[in-house]
Amino acid sequence: MKPPRFDYVAPKSLDEALTSLAQHGAGAKILAGGQSLIPLLNFRLSHPEILIDINRIADLAYVRVGDNDLAIGALTRQHAVERSDIVKARVPILTEACRFIGHAPIRHRGTIGGNLAHADPASELPAVMLALEAHLDVASKQATRSITADRFFTGPLITSLHPGEIVIGVRIPALPPRTGGAFVEMARRAGDYALVGVAALVTLDGSARCERVRIALCGVGPTPIRATAAEQALTGQVPTAATLDEAATRAAAATNPLSDVHGSAEFRKKLARHFARQAIATALERAEGSR
Amino acid sequence: MMATTTVPIALAVNGIRHELHVEPRWLLVDVIRETLGLTGTHIGCEHGVCGTCTVLINGETARSCLMLAVGADGANITTVEGLASGDTMHPLQTAFREAQGLQCGFCTPGMLMLAHELLRENPNPSDEEIREAISANLCRCTGYQGIIDAVRLAATSGAAPR
Predict the structure, then answer these.
(1) What ipTM was reported for this prediction?
(2) What are phi and psi of A153, to 5 degrees?
(3) pTM for the model
């Protein structure tokens, strides 16, 4: 089908966009890369009165190194993040995860901010941002605030954004030295929605103990899931096959997958255990191989 | 009810500049096909799954059913019609014919645009890299093997994309 009729504005500045959004309230939709919104319009599942196209706001697209973080503008294309040497050097898990988002033609258009604001529970980046303890910066006409990833994703396609707010960027705290990360995913075909995806980050101390562990999963619950019990199974331990098994079991226990035509909930839990172990083991290897 | 208003845009399609008036809700693929009459770009699923509407936007592949024409204002667009020069097929098109990289031809324009970008970025792709690139699009006839053979043939016969 074709999109329903809507009014359209393409502001050149964030301030203009926020003014339009404040004027039109719930009748407005923000158009970023459009890779999720345009299908919804084509199916007429979304009927905005007005589309606010933010693609002309050039200063929302950047990758910037801060004192203690890496900042990525909301309008940065997923493909630009995937290809960024800065991202690869500082947050390689994000580079690795980007390759799993749809296909190259999708990543050329799709944006970081749009992906996070859409909050698809099967999507890779929300889980990665949860593991990275990223801050999402959001703005409205009245104010700017920062929301930590663990407070941002509240349900399937539901976030803690207020009406009138736009995601303007994400800030990823610098990773400690001797940190390794890995993102692994199982999908039925390249580019399909994840049956399960796992992001793992492990920081080792001087005596090869796990000092800091972050594990998050996508595709196995109504939101991305942080597996804190699995993290605790490893923290303070010199990792062994047994502790890895225990962490993977706890990661699977944290999931709440649904059964569908692609697999039963039980099957998905088994996948979650297998891929959690693989992600943790790979993250550990990479931590051992780093400074 | 909102008024039907049109917006002026400019598109450069296969090197030719067009100044058009479009409704904001019009998809880029429909403007390419209906307004410009370039029906080489096909439209299949209309929701970003099949990829037969793939074109190059400023040199990068994108699904033209997932873009509003108004959002493409100012863009350089290459469609499948932009591959051949006159009556001479592009080497990729020749390779698709030689290796039977098509049967019904419905997916072919999208596959050609994906292959064009792949060989530009990576002139000697492995079979796995070819498979990954074309996994973006669906083909219901060939079982994909003919398409993979065609892209490999184009690469080995030195069909460097123009």
Answers:
(1) 0.95
(2) -90, 105
(3) 0.95
